[in-house]
Amino acid sequence: MPPHPDSAPSTPGKFKMDKSPFIHHRLRWHLNPIAKLIFWSFIFLGLIYMFFFRSSPSNPSSISSSFSSQSDPSRRSLRTFSWGGPAWEKRVRNSARVRASNGISVLVTGSAGFVGTHVSAALKRRGDGVLGLDNFNDYYDPSLKRSRQALLERSGVFIVEGDINDQALLKKLFEVVAFTHVMHLAAQAGVRYAMQNPGSYVHSNIAGFVNLLEVCKSANPQPAIVWASSSSVYGLNTKVPFSEKDRTDQPASLYAATKKAGEEIAHTYNHIYGLSLTGLRFFTVYGPWGRPDMAYFFFTRDILKGKSIPIFEAPNHGTVARDFTYIDDIVKGCLGALDTAEKSTGSGGKKTGPAQLRVFNLGNTSPVPVSDLVSILEKLLKVKAKRMVMKLPRNGDVQYTHANISLAQRELGYKPTTDLQSGLKKFVSFQKCKLQSTVDLLVNEGERGFSRVCKYPSFKFKDDLLHGIENPWNSTGFDKRSIEL
Ligand SMILES: O=C(O)[C@H]1O[C@H](OP(=O)(O)OP(=O)(O)OC[C@H]2O[C@@H](n3ccc(=O)[nH]c3=O)[C@H](O)[C@@H]2O)[C@H](O)[C@@H](O)[C@@H]1O
Q1: What is the ipTM of this complex?
Q2: Burial of 363 (0-12, 13-18, 19+ CB in 10 A)
Q3: What's its membrane topology (predicted)?
């Protein structure tokens, strides 16, 4: 067997050629000028291929993306994206074209994510221009993101595949479209995962955000930016309900720390460059098309499977609770923030006057204990959960969240209307709908359509629902039928 490449010594001097079993073959090859010519021709053609197809100016992202994936091994699924060229630019322009008379043109980062998909669809529906950007990373099953992408494509939203750290790509997007707004939702989400992969939080939530702001500050005109902060910035704050004026300097997780860093970075770019910036502190958002890493989602799956559910409890049997917020309410808050965002004041990378800087809580103002969340799911699923009550692990979770939303109410007209019981009902119905052919109800129907209940005639309740949750976006089931309608 030939030696494995890894076992070859790095210094050529140590390579003992005369002991090689291939010595005669190599010698013959060495002496044959035609073989030599063929060999060098292949090398030459290979170099030409690499030069023209991998790093041509029409595809500069290949250089920066492949560099970033090599320089950051902690980041999963950062790969070489291809973009550029007249056909690609045309798609970008079409997607971002404003159709309503007073519409805006928005670059939505993280558009294949949970909130990003809903916000993009809502903007498109009302006639705004929307261009998506997403790196389709594998923090959770990317095929879910592909299904959301297919859904958006049907309503005319093109998602550019790329990373927010790719400066050349971002610059190109602003060259092609004069975006009035950026809805920045691309982030590494999840509180507990930060202990496993801290680098991905720094990469997306800090480096990526700075990169985006750098491009926005130089864009002409500068866009107004609305971006996703998090309720987790309140960290160990004990004063409830959480108000925007409360202290946020005690984050309990690296995730929270990166979101808090984002808020400080926003301050800097507003102060120096006159960028209009609005941070939205989302409170545990849930609903149809949600994230499989979130408790309500995997609790549903595990209850149906008969697996036990770990329910966290604070010391002395203290209640752990969240201000769970339904996705449609969050979307309204996002649109309210975009609509009330003032223009940035910078030009040519320089500030010309003071610009708007805001932070809002977007919660439900009604915290629910996690054990009650499980009780609601039991009723909806008609299955008793196997509860395993355990101590809140030291992994970044906080005991309690509760939003004071009066500021958002006043400034954005934000008014949540969905309680946890109704929202989870819509989530469970959505999972059921995935199983049968009338899923077209979910497509192009917008806010109501996403959560609309459909009929499921031959539905074997538990088994079918479980199948839907486990395989909701594979190519054989729901995905094909719903997307290709
Ligand atoms: O509000 C936010 O800013 C954050 O909301 C969620 O974070 P979290 O509230 O921790 O949401 P889940 O992971 O769905 O947990 C919900 C509740 O279930 C509890 N839980 C979670 C997991 C588990 O196994 N058992 C359990 O009792 C958690 O302690 C928490 O109280 C999102 O995952 C974050 O990305 C987001 O930024």
Answers
A1: 0.99
A2: buried
A3: Multi-pass membrane protein
